[in-house]
Amino acid sequence: MNPIFERGPSLRLRLFFALLLSIGLMLIDRYTDSSTQLRSYLTAAVSPLIYVASLPQVILTGASEQFMSHQRLLAENDQLRERLLRQSGNLQRLEFLQQENNKLRELLGSAPVTEGQRLVAEVLAVYSHPFSHQIVLNKGSNDGVTEFQPIIDELGILGQVVSVGPTSSRALLITDTTHAISLRIERTGVAVIAEGLGQWDRIRLVHLPHSIDIQDGDRLVTSGLDGRFPEGYPVARVNRIQRDVSQPFLQVQAEPYAQLDRIRYVLLLWPQTELDQQGDSD
């Protein structure tokens, strides 16, 4: 049974005519120049369609490039910010190290009186007992540290070593209530004794007669009479004098030159006489 609407030539015939037409057009295009102009017309006619068809791809490509560029700029910005932070941290560390270096240089150059051996030590701990001002150093008997050895900083006398272990030692500061030191008033040369009060910023002079020549601002240095501290090192400055005739002695207080509440590095001293004795014994 044939379809009702089937009309026209058969499929095979149409295919034959299509092939024949294609071959003819190919031969005409190959051996004549008439098709060149036709192709140019067709190209001009379909160019807007090609542009419109490629426009979404161009837009997507441009947007993708801009997005990638934006992401790249953000990544570079993050890298630059991170690098700036690292460099800022390094700069702060360098400034800190510069300050520490300057402190150590001042510390090493703060002992002009005695030309003996010197050793820089770092403070490991600070005793927090009331009125007890002691520190622990990271140097001990393995480094040659001995008991009663004086310690100083870049400003003046700090105290003396009272206990020594193999790798650490304990020092008593001049402000401790159990510490006493022999001093000399630099202006007059009069010898005095100073004791700690358990306060970081003051010591007191004891057993001073009312007739003693002492003034506010007088500089107190080590006298060397106690046999422990070498002579001539700065210790404190007189900042308070009370002349009360009802008291048997003059009341005098002084402020230490050394910043005893913020010690980090100290310098241990060996007087030259001790080194000479050690050399003779060897």
Helices, strands, pairings?
Blueprint: H1 11-31, H2 34-108, E1 118-126, E2 134-137, E3 150-152, E4 157-164, E5 169-173, E6 180-185, E7 191-196, E8 203-208, E9 219-222, E10 234-242, E11 250-256, E12 265-269, H3 272-281
Antiparallel strand pairs: 1-2, 1-12, 2-5, 3-4, 3-12, 4-5, 6-7, 6-9, 7-8, 8-11, 9-10, 10-11
Question: What profile does the largest beta sheet have?
Answer: 6 strands, antiparallel, barrel
CATH architecture verdict of the largest domain: Beta Barrel
The domain count comes to 3
Average residue-wise pLDDT:
81
- End-to-end separation: 135 Å
Task: Give a description of the structure.
A hairpin with a 4-residue loop joins strand 4 (157-164) and strand 5 (169-173). The protein has helices spanning 11-31, 34-108, 272-281; strands at 118-126, 134-137, 150-152, 157-164, 169-173, 180-185, 191-196, 203-208, 219-222, 234-242, 250-256, 265-269. It is built from three helices and twelve strands, in the order H-H-E-E-E-E-E-E-E-E-E-E-E-E-H. The strands form two sheets. It has a six-stranded antiparallel barrel. Strands 6-7-8-11-10-9 form a six-stranded antiparallel barrel. 38% of the residues lie in helices and 26% in strands. Residues 273-279 have low confidence and may be disordered. It folds into three domains: 11-60; 68-110; 119-282, Rod shape-determining protein MreC, domain 1 (Thrombin, subunit H, Beta Barrel). The chain is rod-shaped, with a radius of gyration of 48 Å. By secondary structure, the chain is an alpha+beta fold.
